[in-house]
Structure prediction request, 236 residues.
Amino acid sequence: MLIEAVTVFPEYFEPLRLSLIGKAIESGLIDVRIHDLRDFTHDRHRTVDDTPYGGGAGMVMKPEPWGEVLDDIASRVQTIELQPQPTLIFTTPAGTPFAQSAADELATHEHIVFACGRYEGIDQRVIEWARAHFDVREYSLGDYVLNGGEVAALAMSEAIVRLIPGVIGNPESLIEESHAATSDGLLEYPVYTKPATWRGLDVPEVLLSGHHGEVAKWRRARSEALTAERRPDLLP
Ligand code: ADE
Prediction:
């Protein structure tokens, strides 16, 4: 998979080089290219924003640098890619909430580009124009406002990349986790490791019993209780 990101803060993407995603880059499972939007400006101040038409507070990202960087990305799309168009994700609090189901689907894509907006957002014509050249999506990380789309793009990248076969050493660990399609949408049960007693607190007896059926029942009950308490909206 090729992941590209367009941003005015390329340094935000350094953490992608760490941990499992970093190993996936080293092993060639994924490739990451970060583009500085300011490299596609032509004035001395490398201006990427301007005042909004219609008035109001804040600044809007100008369409011209976005047009140039997306032209550049589109011109390098290889026709051998199986995907007819790269997927272009605008990260915005006004987007569709990003969920595990989107990560599952996007993990099968070959080429994903994140467009990270700042200020009050990107001139809407960029999004409209891009639909002719990219499979355009608009996703929000959650119902809160960040200073820009970079943290959202990082979080989404990690959620997607860890689902690519070979990225996580033991693929079974993807099966029972919270929000996995295979976990009936329930939150994951609590987990414990050695020692059996720590600071006076014991690991639940059933987990030491060696009875796989009883362990599975206990885990299911804990998952259902947790989901009912914290996320009743997820219950079937
Ligand atoms: N940019 C600012 N806030 C955001 C959010 N919640 N999700 C995605 N992008 C954003």
Q: What stands out?
A: The pocket of adenine is lined by residues 91-93, 140-142, 144-146, 148-149, 152 (CB under 6 Å). The chain has a mean pLDDT of 94. DSSP finds six helices and nine strands in the chain.
